[in-house]
Structures are given as C-alpha cells and as structure tokens.
Design brief:
The chain has three domains: 127 residues, Glucose Oxidase, domain 1 (3-Layer(bba) Sandwich); 111 residues, PtsI, HPr-binding domain (Enzyme I, Chain A, domain 2, Orthogonal Bundle), CATH 1.10.274; 309 residues, TIM Barrel (Alpha-Beta Barrel). Strand 1 and strand 2 form a beta hairpin. The protein is α/β, with parallel strands linked by helices. The protein starts with a strand and ends with a helix. The strands form three sheets. Strands 3-10-9-5-6-7-8-4 form an eight-stranded mixed β-sheet. It is globular, with a radius of gyration of 25 Å. Helix content is 44%, strand content 14%. This is Phosphoenolpyruvate-protein phosphotransferase. InterPro entries: PEP-util_enz_mobile_dom, PEP-utilizing_PTS_enzyme, PEP_util_C, PEP_util_CS, Phosphohistidine_dom_sf, PTS_EI, PTS_EI-like, PTS_EIN.
Length: 601
C-alpha cells in the first residue's frame, strides 16, 4: 500500500499531515469510479433538547438511554474490530482509545450519572447526558491535571455518540455540498443515503457497512460508486483532498499521484463508454438466444429513480420499496399524500405493472416517524419489522392499502407483502384489505377494478419451505434473495466483519430458490427474483435455468443483465443448472457457474 505524506497547515482548524497517494481497501458495493474533493462528514456538536419527564415515564426514559448506550457499545466494538487490522502502531493506538470509550459506556461514572439525573431531575435522556458531560468535564478541569484534561475530549466524544443515537441524528447537509464531491463518513444509514443527489455527489465511502446492507442497495439504485467497510478511512483525510472511490475493486485512494489519477480517469472514461454502448440495448427485446422471453423489471428505492427505469427500458417496476415515504421526517404520511405519490409513479409507467411493497421498516431501516411504535430490539433482523409491524399496528397497513387501491385506479398496480412466514398472515391482510375496500366504496372513492393482485415476498426459509401451502393464497411470489440468504446462513448482511460468509451460491440458498420456484410453477402463479442476485449477470444463467422468467433489479444493472441473457442458450443454461443443483460444495458450484459464463463470454 503506497502511503506517502507531507506536512501542511489545514484540516478542521488544526495543523495536519497531508496523506499522499494512500490506498485504502474496503468492500466495493456499487460499481463505477468517482473522482472528486473529499467531504468528511463530521457529526459535530449536537444541541440536546431538554424537557420534563413525568414520573410514570421515567423508567421508559432510562430504558431509552440504555438502548442508546447498547447501540454505542456495538458501534465501538465494530470500530475496534476494523482498527485491529490497521498497519503498524495505528491499530494499537486506536485500540487503546476505543477501549477507553467502551469503558465509559459500561457501568462508568458517566452512565451512572445520566441514569441518576433522569430519575432525580425528571428530565429526558439527552438533557441528562449533556449535563453529566459538562459536570465531568468541569471536575477534570478543576483537578488541573494535564492527563485528565486530555481525557475531556474523550468524554465529550462518547457523549456525542450517545446523543446521536438518542436523537437518531441524520446528516441533513448533503444538498449544500459542492458539486462532484466524495462523501466520507464513519457510517451512513439508508436514510442518509436517500438524501444524496447523484447530480451533486459523485460517490461515497464509509468505515462500516457490508455489500448486502440496505445502504449498499441504495447506492446501487442511485448509481453512486461506493465502498464500505474501509479500514482507516477517517484518519488523515481532510475536506478538499482529492479522493478516488473505486466501487469495482473496493479501493479508496487519497490524494493520488498524477500518474495514478490519470489511470483512474482513463478507467472511468472506459466505463462511461461501455455504459453508452449498453444503452443501445434499450429497445431490443429481453429474449434468450433460443427465443425465450424474460421480463426485466426495475427496483425503485426513491421516486426520482423512475426516469432511469424508463430510460433503460424496464418492463415495469418489480419492487417499489415504499419506505421512502417514511424516511427523514417526523410525521407519518397520510392516505392522501401516499396516494398522490403512488399515483404519480403508476401513471408515469403508462400501463406497465408497478409492484408496490407494503412498509418494510425495521432492522437497519428505521424511520424517525415510527420510532414510537416499537422499542429497539436486541436483534433488529428478528424483531418487530415489515408485515409483523403492519399487523400489530393495522392503522399503518390500512392507510397504505387505501393509498395503493386508489393509485391502482390510474394504472397497473400489484401489492406485495414483505417477510411473510405463514398463511395466517396472508389471510389477515386479505381481511384488512376487504375492510378498506368497503370503506373506500362507501366514501365513493375511485379504486382499482379489478382489485390489485396480492403477492408475498419469499425471504424467510420457513416461507420457502412452505411455498406449496402458501401458493393457493397468493397471486404471485417474489423471492427476496437478500434476506433469504441472511436468514438461511445466519449472517448479518450489513456487517462487514462477516461479509465474506454471505454467499448466494450456498447450496441451501439455491435449494430454497428452486423449491419456491417449482411450487409457484405447480400452482400456476408468477414468480420473480427481486433481490440483488437478479441484478448480477453472474447469476442470470443459473436463475433462468432454475425456471425463473422474471427478474427485478436496480435500473443501472438492467442493461448488463439484458446483454447476458440475450447471449444465453436456455437449454444449455437449464442443463448446467441441473448439474449445479446436484452439488453440495460451494466452491464446486461457483466453478461450474463461472466456467459456463466464461464459455459464453
């Protein structure tokens, strides 16, 4: 790794060493090369709100603080794990610092003091944290000890981490960044990423995160080159430094030399030329070499991606993630607002199908407006999320279904239910939908006729294994490979520490996909893949060979998948898929698939 440096004055108000031609390695999660000035996201000091808490709610407030502290400990542990692989003495130095931060978050004077202030002063957790930090800092200063004085900065940093977690602080300044900049941050949530405008921001990199987390999915949908899980990213980088983010190789280069920079610019020009060439496929049919038609749909994270889906010739919207309606706001969208936005999307697709998924909030996707509906679970992936939350709070579901039914009157809309695990859940949704239909008709509101088809996501192993039983109650299946892989392999897809274990070619995953597909075909209902596997041309032949004829993906991936399937012979792909399904070793499966792809290249 090249790492040359020279001194200069700069960097957030203090003398700093300029890092030159430094290459950092992470996980490339969204392809492309971005070159531009760095914008280092500094959480900065937060202004803590202060308000009184009534006696009956004090314990709940203490628990809210405890949840924020637990989250802070998890964050510090992740950073310590990443730092342990840094070269030289950096790992040890940063490790000592993070050990100190972890100690402050575990039964320390700070923690005890905050809990005491909440109970005795009857104030909210944010105000208690701010008051305790101020008190500790003052006591350290009064001791006139240089070592303790230096620790004040650590106390304040820990306090700010607690406040960010309590306030669910979001980065809101992306619209004011210079055009073409590269965002560098410790971490970015999906909601943060949703605020990025690709016309202004060239790309981003973070210290935390994995290739299959929702932040990565958002980056791919927006077409932003991105690298996550980047070791040492925030050390020595200053605002304005020239940064290259290579979302293909997973490298981040800080202040590259002129020769290195020219090389990246040539590679970027080649990629742009290839993309321009792929645009010529837009009007060509999505058919295999031997004449089998395949439906290629677009996944949409945000309404502004709709133009991109139309531009690449998507046959429809295979997955509209409605979480965007709830992100970065303090209130819940009402029925009319949801109807207006969904109607605009449906109408703009001009009769092509739009599959709108009901709310899938939970796990890493947390909406501020919904934080009062559930406590932070020990394991977010297994907690109250998606359809479980919608059925526990049926008013949320009723509002969404009403908006979808109304929007369906303006085009071809289908309704998709996330994280279904049982027939009872599907039945309950159908009952709620019937109630909503009667209510809308009594109001004289125009709704879809016939009613929208109702399908389910197959993303839990239990749902895949009971697909035969679920099929008679559903109009279609959509296999969500992202969560299906996560739950099958017991891997947190957003955790870079286990990212290498996340394998779509694990035989258990492939058998669940096969079982679901065959169950749908027997029941004569459509089945699609709408996870990230659908948008990777490496898997196209295998998925078609297993019987899939509908793929939904980020719009930017659609041209490369179309190019791959137009070169495929389906008979050969089916034969290779059967051979693969006889295997039990992941390495052998990967070799068989890659050999087939190489032979067709």
């Amino acid at each position: 790794m090249a790492d040359r440096s020279s001194g200069r004055e700069g960097g957030r108000g203090r003398a700093a060493k300029v890092v030159v031609d430094r290459v950092l390695r992470g996980v490339g999660v969204s392809s492309g090369i971005a070159i531009g000035p760095a914008h280092v996201v500094d959480a900065g000091a937060l202004l803590a709100p202060e308000y009184a808490v009534v006696e009956a709610e004090l314990e709940a407030e203490v628990q809210r603080f405890a949840a924020a502290a637990d989250k802070a400990r998890r964050q510090v542990r992740k950073l310590k794990s990443k730092a342990s692989t840094l070269p030289g003495s950096a790992a040890e130095e940063i490790g000592f610092l993070l050990d100190a931060h972890f100690a402050m978050l575990s039964g320390s004077r700070l923690m005890r003091g905050v809990e005491r202030r909440i109970r005795e002063d009857k104030v909210n957790a944010e105000a208690a944290v701010q008051a305790e930090i101020t008190s500790i800092a003052q006591s350290f200063a009064d001791m006139e000890d240089a070592y303790l004085a230096a620790r004040v900065a650590d106390v304040r940093e820990v306090g700010q981490r607690l406040l960010r977690n309590l306030m669910q602080h979001k980065y809101q300044a992306f619209s004011f960044l210079p055009e073409g900049c590269i965002v560098l941050a410790e971490d970015l949530s999906p909601a943060d990423t949703a605020l990025m405008d690709p016309r202004r921001i060239a790309g981003f990199a973070t210290m935390l995160g994995g290739a299959e987390g929702h932040t990565a999915i958002m980056a791919r949908s927006l077409g932003l080159p991105a690298v996550l899980g980047t070791l040492g990213l925030m050390q020595g980088v200053q605002n304005g430094d020239t940064v290259v983010v290579d979302g293909i190789t997973g490298q981040v280069c800080v202040n590259p030399s002129p020769d290195v920079l020219d090389g990246y610019r040539r590679r970027r020009a080649e990629l742009l030329a290839e993309r321009a060439q792929l645009k010529s496929l837009r009007k060509l049919p999505a058919i295999t070499r031997d004449g089998t038609a395949v439906t290629l749909n677009a996944n949409l994270e945000l309404p502004r991606e709709l133009d991109g889906a139309i531009e690449v010739g998507a046959s429809g919207v295979g997955l509209l993630r409605t979480e965007f309606l709830f992100m970065n706001r303090e209130d819940l969208p009402d029925e009319d607002e949801q109807t207006e936005i969904l109607t605009r999307i449906v109408a703009n697709m001009d009769g092509k199908p739009v599959t709108a998924r009901t709310l899938d909030i939970g796990g890493e996707k947390i909406a501020t407006a919904l934080r009062g509906y559930f406590a932070e679970p020990t394991n977010p992936a297994l907690g109250l999320r998606a359809i479980r939350l919608s059925l526990k709070e049926p008013k949320l579901l009723e509002t969404q279904l009403a908006a979808m039914l109304r929007a369906g009157a303006h085009g071809n809309l289908r309704i998709l239910l996330p994280m279904i695990s049982s027939i009872a859940e599907v039945r309950r949704v159908r009952e709620i939908m019937a109630t909503v239909v009667r209510r809308l008709r009594r109001r004289g509101v125009k709704i879809a006729s016939p009613l929208p088809k109702l399908g389910i996501m197959i993303e839990i192993p239990g749902a895949a294994l009971s697909a035969d039983g679920l099929a008679p109650f559903c109009d279609f299946f959509a296999i969500g490979t992202n969560d299906l892989i996560q739950y099958t392999l017991a891997i947190d897809r957003g955790d870079e520490q286990v990212a290498d274990l996340y394998d779509p070619l694990h035989p258990a995953v492939l058998r669940l996909v096969q079982f679901t597909t065959e169950a749908a075909l027997r029941a004569r209902i459509p089945v699609s893949i709408c996870g990230e596997m659908a948008g990777d041309p490496r898997y196209t032949a295998l998925l078609l060979g297993l019987g899939i004829r509908e793929l939904s993906m980020a719009p930017n991936n659609l041209p490369v998948v179309k190019r791959r399937l137009r070169g495929l012979d389906l008979v050969e792909a089916t034969r290779r898929a059967r051979t693969i399904m006889d295997q039990t070793d992941q390495g052998r499966i990967a070799a068989l698939l890659d050999d087939f792809n190489d032979a067709a290249a």
